[in-house]
Amino acid sequence: MQELMDFALIKLAEAVVFADEHFSAVVAFCVMFFTAYQAYITRAHNIISVRPAITINLHTCSGTENNKYYLELYLRNSGLGPAKITSFNFYYRGKIVE
Length: 98
Description:
Structural class: alpha+beta
Low-confidence stretches: none
Strand content: 25-35%
Radius of gyration: 33 Å
Order of helices and strands: HHEEEE
Number of strands: 4
Largest sheet: 2 strands, antiparallel
Strand order of the largest sheet: 1-2
């Protein structure tokens, strides 16, 4: 039993010496890893924050001029990036309204 305790103490002492000798390398590796991770997170955040965000508001008016109903559609770009609308269609009962 004493031999096992001596062996464990020797291995523990070797591990402490190894950690002491290579402490700066371990710290440098950790710093390098966290710096790369932070750069990745920052890049992902920058890509997401420049996207367009289109907000749609509908407003209806009824009973005005000649008892007609009106529908107003407001589009607003609430994001930081440019919003590009290539086309849009209005449908009423499955048919396109001109």
